[in-house]
Amino acid sequence: EPLPGAYVTIPQAGRGTLSNARGYFIINVFPGDTLVFSYIGFKKQYHIIPRKTELDYSVIVEMREDAKMLKEVKVYPFSTEEEFK
């Protein structure tokens, strides 16, 4: 499934972009650049642009889920902040 709004960065260059609703994106790169793909709930993925690359280059990156267990959160029935204090 495509991930709309996935963040694609080139940390060395200090720039990035977001994927569109279909998971597509366009970013200018140089051979040897490392792309970092990130999305909430998924592990970061890294992709290095090959040194011998054509002018147009495309890649399909499969993101892996990153399941984390969070500590328990308790919700109390206070109607106002003053009552809570």
Describe this structure in words.
5% of the residues lie in helices and 20% in strands. It has one helix and four strands, in the order ββββα. The protein has one helix at residues 81-84; strands at residues 7-10, 15-18, 34-38, 45-48. The protein has a four-stranded antiparallel sheet, with no helix packed on it.
Write the layout of secondary structure elements.
Elements: E1 7-10, E2 15-18, E3 34-38, E4 45-48, H1 81-84
Antiparallel strand pairs: 1-2, 1-3, 3-4
Compact description:
The protein is built from 1 helix and 4 strands; from the N terminus they run E-E-E-E-H. The chain is elongated, with a radius of gyration of 19 Å. 5% of the residues lie in helices and 20% in strands.
Which keywords apply here?
85 residues, mainly beta, 4-stranded antiparallel beta sheet, 4 strands, elongated
Q: What proportion strand?
A: 15-25%
Question: What assembly state would you assign to the polypeptide chains in this entry?
Answer: single chain
Structural Rg: 19 Å
**Number of distinct helices:** 1
Low-confidence stretches: none
What percent of residues adopt helix (DSSP H or I)? Answer: under 10%
Mean pLDDT: 90
Count all strands and give the number: 4
**Pattern of helices and strands:** EEEEH
What class do helices, strands and sheet pairing give? mainly beta
Spatial sequence of strands, sheet with the most strands: 2-1-3-4
Question: What does the largest sheet look like?
Answer: 4 strands, antiparallel
Could you say which overall geometry the principal axes of the C-alpha atoms support?
A: elongated
Distance between the termini: 46 Å
